[in-house]
Amino acid sequence: PVHRTTEVQDARLRLPILAEEQQVMETINENPIVIVAGETGSGKTTQLPQFLYEAGYAQHKMIGVTEPRRVAAIAMSKRVAHEMNLPESEVSYLIRFEGNVTPATRIKFMTDGVLLKEIETDFLLSKYSVIILDEAHERSVYTDILVGLLSRIVPLRHKRGQPLKLIIMSATLRVSDFTENTRLFKIPPPLLKVEARQFPVTIHFQKRTPDDYVAEAYRKTLKIHNKLPEGGILIFVTGQQEVNQLVRKLRRTFPYQPPTKDVAKNGKESEDKKEETKEDADSTVEDPKELEFDMKRVIRNIRKSKKKFLAQIALPKINLDDYKLPGDDTEADMHEQPDEDEDQEGLEEENDDELGLEGESGMESGKRQPLWVLPLYSLLSSEKQNRIFQPVPDGCRLCVVSTNVAETSLTIPHIKYVVDCGRQKTRLYDKLTGVSAFVVTYTSKASADQRAGRAGRISAGHCYRLYSSAVYNDCFEDFSQPDIQKKPVEDLMLQMRCMGIDRVVHFPFPSPPDQVQLQAAERRLIVLGALEAANTEKTDLPPAVTRLGQVISRFPVAPRFGKMLALSHQQDLLPYTVCLVAALSVQEVLIETGVQRDEDVAPGANKFHRKRQSWAASGNYQLLGDPMVLLRAVGAAEYAGSQGRLSEFCATNGLRQKAMSEVRKLRVQLTNEINLNVSDVELGVDPELKPPTDAQARFLRQILLAGMGDRVARKVPLADIADKEERRRLKYAYHCADMEEPAFLHVSSVLRQKTPEWVIYQEAYELQNGDSTKMFIRGITAIE
Ligand code: ADP
Ligand code: MG
User: Where are the compositionally biased (Basic and acidic residues) regions (predicted)?
Assistant: First the structure.
C-alpha cells in the first residue's frame, strides 16, 4: 500500500485523470497495448505509474517510463517518489550520464535512448512488466523506434506467457499515426482520452509580426503585469540565451527585494531568497570526490563484467596511413548563438485595448508589484528547474520564461497569461551532407494551441501571440514533422542493424523516414567502414555489419566518433581520444567568445579567446588546432576539479561547468565501455592527462581525419581574384566537399590567422543574417 500525505492526496484529487483511474486500469488490464491521450497537466505522467504500481504491476518486474527529455525523466521520477512517499532508490531515473537506479527500483523513469540501448542486450525487456512511452506526440527519433520495436516485442512476450503491457501516452495531438498505421499495429489499440477541465483561453493576435520577438515579449509582459489582475505569466521564446536575456531584463525592471531579516522571521527562508536574487550563475556544487567514487565503481564493474563477457572484441588493426574517407554526422550540438545586446525600449505607452480586456478591471498601474521571474530550459540544473513548482514569495507575481520545454513536458502551476513568440529553435539537417543548421522557425498550429492551453488550467486565461493571424494561417504547418523524418539516421541505422534488424527500410516506423535518407545513411556507414561494401554476389542482402561497425556501435557516441575510438588502439592514444570525443559530444563546452558574425574583431578583444589561442598555440598543440583547445580545457578543468577549484576555473576560462561535468561523466562512461569491450586494455581516467607527445599528436590528427574525413575544406584561392572587395570578402572562405557556397572560418577558431590551405572541421552550419544566410565552419584542424 502507498501512504501519501494529505497534501499530496488533495493535489492528486484535483487531477482529471484520477476520476478515470478505474476505466484506465480496466482498459490496460484487458488490452496489451493502450494509447492514452490527454491535455497537458491532466496527470498522465505523474499518476499512471502510480495506478500501475497500486494494481501490482511492480511486484515482480519493473514499471518503465520513457521520456524524450532528460529534464522530464529527472523531474517526474522525483515528483512520483515524493507523491508515493517512496525513496528514490525505488522510484528512480536513468539518463545518459547519470541516474539513481538500484536493484530495489520499482518504477524507472528513463530517456527513450536509454531504453533503446537496453533492448540491444535484452530484446524482450524481461525486467519490465509495463513500458510507458510518454510524450509520444513529440515524435522523437528514439520514441518512434521504440514504438516500432515494442509493436513486435509485446506479441513475443505474450507468446512466451510473460505478457508485457505497452502504454503510449501523448498530448491530444495527432494520435492517428499510432492508431491508424496497420503496419504498426494490426489491431488498432484502444484510445483513452482523458478529459481535462480546460478553461476557455482568449487568443489575442497582433496586427503585425515583429522580428524582434524578445523585445516584443518584454513589452507585452510589462503591460500584462502593470495592467492585468493576478495570475502567473508564461513566456515562450526559442532558446537558452533568449530566456536568460529576458529574465535579466524583467528582473531589472521589477526587482524583487527579499524581506530584511527582522521582517522575515524565518531565517532560512530569507537565505533562500537572497540566493534567488543573484544573477543566474550556475551554482551546481561540484564534489571533487565524485570522480574518485566513479572510478572505483568503474573498476568494480569492469572486474565483474570481464568475467562474464564472452564475446570480447579485439579492435581491428587498421593502418592509419591507409583509410578511406569516412562520413556521418556529429552529435555535438551547435552552440547557441549569442543574441543581440539588449535594447532599452519597451516602456512606451500604447492604448489599453491592445490587451483585449475591456471590462476586466486591471491593477492600478504605477504600483510596482515585484515579479518573480524564473528561467526554464533543458540545460538548466534540475534544482533550478524545480523552482517553478515552489511557492511564489508573498506579494509577487510568477513569471516563467521558457523554451518549448513548458509546452507539454512540464506543467507549470498557476499560469493565467501566456505570451507566445510563435517560434522555436529547430535543428535542420541537410539529408545528403548531414550539415546542420539551427534555425528559428515558426512552430506548428498544434504547438501554438498547446502553448495557449497552458493559460487555461486554473481559470479562464489569455494567450498573447506575438504574430498576426495571417501569419498563423499561412505560415504555420498543422503539425511539426516527426524528427525521424528530419534527422540523418546513421547511428540509428547502425544501431538497428547491430540489433539484428536487417531491413531497416521495412521497419514498422510510425512514420517512415525518407528512403533517400536511409540510403544515404547506408552509404556513409559503408564509407566509414561500419558496413561491408555491397556484396555483389548476393545483392538481395543488405550489406553486413563489419567488425569495425560492431565496435563503433558499442560506443554511445555518433559513429564517426566511435570510429575514432576504435582507431586509437595504439600509441596509448585512447585516453586522449576518449577525452576528445567526450568533449566533442557534449554541447556548449566553451562559452561563446561573444562574436558570432564574420566581422574582423581583433582576436585579442576577448579574454577567453586570447586564452584559447594560447592553449592551442605552443609546441605540438598547433597540430590539432581547435580540438586541442577542448582537450586542454578538459584536462585542466579535471585537474582543477581534483583540487576543488572547478567552479573558479570554469568561470575564469569561459567554460560551462555543467558541460564539464557531463564531459567527465562521458569520459568515465566511455572508459568503462572500452575496458569492457576491448580485451587487452584497462584504462583509467587520469585527472592529470599529460600533453600528448609530438608523435601522439600526429596520430591524433590522423584519427581526427579518419573520423571527419568527409569534412575536409580547402581555402578559396585568393590569388586569382582581381576585385579587391571580393578578395577581402573571401579572406576566410573555404570550399567544402558537397557544398556549392563557400563557408567561412568561424572567428572563434584559433587557426583564423593562419588560414591553412587544407583543413578538417567539426561542424558546418548556417546562420541567418537578415534575408541572407551564410555558412560557417568551426572546430578546425589543419591538414599538412
Ligand atoms: P501530464 O503528464 O498529463 O501533462 P503531469 O502528470 O505531468 O501531467 O502533471 C500533473 C500535475 O502535477 C500538474 O498540475 C503539475 O503542475 C503537477 N506537478 C508536476 N511536478 C510537480 C512538482 N515537482 N511539484 C509540484 N507539482 C508538480
Ligand atoms: Mg506528461
Answer: 262-288, 321-337
